[in-house]
Amino acid sequence: DVKVTQSSRYLVKRTGEKVFLECVQDMDHENMFWYRQDPGLGLRLIYFSYDVKMKEKGDIPEGYSVSREKKERFSLILESASTNQTSMYLCASSLEGGGSYEQYFGPGTRLTVT
Amino acid sequence: LAKTTQPISMDSYEGQEVNITCSHNNIATNDYITWYQQFPSQGPRFIIQGYKTKVTNEVASLFIPADRKSSTLSLPRVSLSDTAVYYCLVGETYWGGKLIFGQGTELSVKP
Predict the structure, then answer these.
(1) What is the CA radius of gyration of chain B?
(2) Which of B49, B93, B102 is nearest residue A42 as measured by Cβ atoms?
(3) Which uninterrupted H or E stretch holds B106?
(4) Which of B41, B42, B94 sits opposite A98 (nearest CB)?
(5) What would the pLDDT profile of A30-57 be if each residue is shown by its tens digit?
């Protein structure tokens, strides 16, 4: 079974802090994704990566950056956390790109910025 | 990019068949239609995917009309454990394509 793990289930940070969310997948998948999920808004794509050191902006990249130095690891970085970034963050991976390949999701990290 | 529209919520009773329809009027030629299920405090889980006509697996069926502007997820004989949020996803198949999640339909199954 594919396993996608995220570094924390719950995280509380202060405004202005730099925040790192880590995601690791164990199935040698090419693609990895970061989403945020908010009530009434569903899932929204922040960034995705289709190869090591490659990244593409999703629908809401502002305030975020990403890093993919190794194939199995995809990090989401909040350079200066703000309260409007309080949300559930979900990482996913897929074998290849696009909508025809199943995405496997991690359990999520609930981030609270105070 | 195709945008999807789903009902916000639906109620059902155990043993009934549930049909959830997703509208995607601007679907592109290369787009597949995928449905995910999400329980509270968990990430979404793949249910079914299709391109046209009908697809069936052990969990659900997916009906897609010829014009592909909508799709219907059918859950046969639901149980309490099917209470979840169901997402319709329309995505491009080419390398690096962007994906659009719908708002999600919150299905509540009652005894």
Answers:
(1) 13
(2) B102
(3) strand B105-110
(4) B94
(5) 889 999 999 878 888 899 898 898 898 9
Within B4-111, strands assigned E span 9-13, 18-23, 32-38, 45-50, 53-56, 61-64, 70-75, 84-91, 99-101, 105-110
Residue B50 has a pLDDT of: 92
Q: Is A48 exposed, middle or buried (0-12, 13-18, 19+ CB in 10 A)?
A: buried
DSSP B82: G
Chains A & B: contacts with CB separation below 8 Å: 77
- Tell me the C-alpha distance between B84 and B39, whole Å: 5
For B71-94, write each residue's pLDDT tens digit: 999 999 999 999 999 999 887 655
